């Protein structure tokens, strides 16, 4: 288990796939799942997002980590970057021209930002000249998703918007 823990620590935000772990550690898939399920360290946990494993801190560490992060300069995504990220997440693989057609404006800056932060990656599609973009495992990890199927549906979003409007109207009264 210490070897897996060390490899996941070194892998950082990129995590490691099940295939990579099995290839580099003498362990079977069933044994890997068992040792990960039984992993218990103070303030650390191993999470699986999609087909990748990540070494993460526990929720109890959140307040201490937040203090450290509060001292750093803001790294929030702009509204344009969030728009582009959601277009890619729900329509991937998607080309830059498709993104710009949906947004109605050039999206070079947001795409560069998202590539730089490792939230999206280029994907080549045979018989197409244009590069297409897909979300990465880091995207799943950052948003706490196991897979893209866990993204909120349009129905979920509409229900949330209705609830927000309801509570806003109550607050105004």
Identify low-pLDDT runs. none
Q: Assess the beta-strand content as a share of residues.
A: 5-15%
Fraction of helical residues: 40-55%
How many helices does DSSP assign?
9
Beginning-to-end CA distance, first to last residue: 57 Å
Largest sheet: 3 strands, antiparallel
Sum up the overall morphology in one term.
globular
Structural class: alpha+beta
- Looking at how many chains there are and whether they match, the oligomeric state comes to single chain
Strand order of the largest sheet: 1-3-2
Describe the structure.
The longest helix is centred in the C-terminal third of the chain and has 19 residues, at 154-172. The chain is α+β, with helices and mostly antiparallel strands. Helix 5 (79-91) packs across helix 7 (108-116). It has a 3-stranded antiparallel beta sheet with strand order 1-3-2. Strands 4-6-5 form a 3-stranded antiparallel beta sheet. It is globular. The chain contains 9 helices and 6 strands, in the order H-E-H-H-E-E-H-H-E-H-H-E-E-H-H.
């Amino acid at each position: 288990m210490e070897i897996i823990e060390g490899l996941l620590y070194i892998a950082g935000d990129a995590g490691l796939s099940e295939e990579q772990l099995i290839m580099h550690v003498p362990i079977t898939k069933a044994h890997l799942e068992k040792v990960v399920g039984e992993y218990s360290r103070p303030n650390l946990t191993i999470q699986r997002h999609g087909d990748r494993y990540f070494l993460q801190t526990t929720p109890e560490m959140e307040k201490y980590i937040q203090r450290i992060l509060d001292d750093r300069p803001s790294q929030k995504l702009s509204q344009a970057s969030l728009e582009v990220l959601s277009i890619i997440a729900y329509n991937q693989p998607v080309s830059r021209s498709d993104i710009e057609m949906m947004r109605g404006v050039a999206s070079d800056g947001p795409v560069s930002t998202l590539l730089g932060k490792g939230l999206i990656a280029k994907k080549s599609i045979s018989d197409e000249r244009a590069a297409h973009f897909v979300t990465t495992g880091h995207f799943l990890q950052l948003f706490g998703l196991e897979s893209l199927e866990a993204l909120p549906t349009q129905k979920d979003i509409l229900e949330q918007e209705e609830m927000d409007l309801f509570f806003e109207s109550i607050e105004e009264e």
